[in-house]
Amino acid sequence: MSVELNSKTAEVKRDSCTLMAPDDRSKYGWLPQIPVWWIGAAAVCLGFLLLLVILGLVAQIGLMECENLVYNLTKDRDALRDERDQLKRNSSSLKKELDVLQSQYKAVAASRDKLQEDVRRLNHSKTERICYQGWIKFNNKCYYASDKGAAKTWEESRKDCLQRRADLVIITTKDELVFVSKFYSRTWIGLSDMQQENKWRWVDGSDLEGRGFWQSGEPNNVGNEDCVELSNPNGEWNDMPCENEIPWMCED
Length: 252
Ligand SMILES: [Ca+2]
Ligand SMILES: [Ca+2]
Ligand SMILES: [Ca+2]
What we know:
The chain has a 4-stranded antiparallel β-sheet, sandwiched between helices. Strands 5-4-6-7 form a 4-stranded antiparallel β-sheet. It has a domain at 136-251: Mannose-Binding Protein A, Chain A. The chain has helices spanning 22-27, 36-127, 154-163, 174-181, and strands spanning 136-138, 141-145, 167-168, 186-192, 201-202, 227-231, 236-240, 249-251.
């Protein structure tokens, strides 16, 4: 259909409006009439294709990311394996070092034990007393018993001991009492109350502690008895005049 428009009269000449036959349409360049449903279907297809393309792209990107992830994981796994192998090697090396250290420790401990034993022996030999000739050793102390037949006052007896760089014996134990009593039936010991009556003091200046080993009824100070003898049969003590002359015993 064509329409002629007169601009002057603004009228449309209906006569000029004629319908063209279908065969004439191609002659004038007209496209065939496209059904609406076909356009819709094409749009749906295009949309579907577009969706497929997008999905394909997404899948491609996802695949690449997966590949990257697998690559990174494989790399990390290989690194961890290397680290594990290195740790194994380190562990083996440390175990060897530990064995060496344990062996060295045993050797040092054995050496220490030997040294301790040597020190013990040295200390023992250092403290072990050696007595002069003529002296008797008892409980690591040295004793000198006066010569047979010799007898002196208490003061002279003490003087003899001092000249021997010793002093009259000090009895501190029952064992020592028994040991000293074996030599003579009567023996001066280093105990007296000559400075103060009934205050018994040893020659080293110490006071008599405890009850001592007095015979029954002693000390009785009969006739001013200020010096102590040890007398048999059981070696117990008796005070008697210091001027009496009997054997004596020195202790160093
Ligand atoms: Ca003693
Ligand atoms: Ca007395
Ligand atoms: Ca007496």
